[in-house]
Write a structure and sequence with these properties.
Order of helices and strands: HEEHH
Number of strands: 2
Strand order of the largest sheet: 1-2
Shape: elongated
Strand content: under 5%
Number of helices: 3
Bound molecules: zinc ion
Low-confidence stretches: 7-13
Mean pLDDT: 85
């Protein structure tokens, strides 16, 4: 009897060869910054804090909407502040 184990693993072991895979749910992302953003949905991290109240958001865009609605902040003004405060963060 001849055993041919070849073929058994065919197609079933496509290990992702990049590191842009979520450690929590194994979802993969095209861009590293998308992964960073996604992981925050698991960790609940909200690095974007409002300078005018206690609001905090996980995404810059959410904070931007908040500032526009609650503080009537213009987009330009927000971007200026955001650049200074969150320039080091992935939006
Ligand atoms: Zn995930
Ligand atoms: Zn606010």
């Amino acid at each position: 009897m001849q055993e041919t184990s070849e073929g058994l693993v065919y197609g079933s072991s496509t290990a992702p060869n990049d590191s842009r895979v979520c450690p929590y749910c194994q979802k993969s992302f095209y861009l590293p910054k998308d992964l960073v953003r996604h992981v925050r949905t698991h960790t609940g991290e909200k690095p974007f804090t409002c300078t005018l109240c206690v609001y905090a958001a996980s995404r810059k865009n959410h904070l931007k909407k908040h500032c526009a609605k609650e503080h009537l902040m213009s987009s330009d003004e927000f971007e200026r502040i955001a650049k200074r405060l969150f320039g080091h963060l992935v939006s």
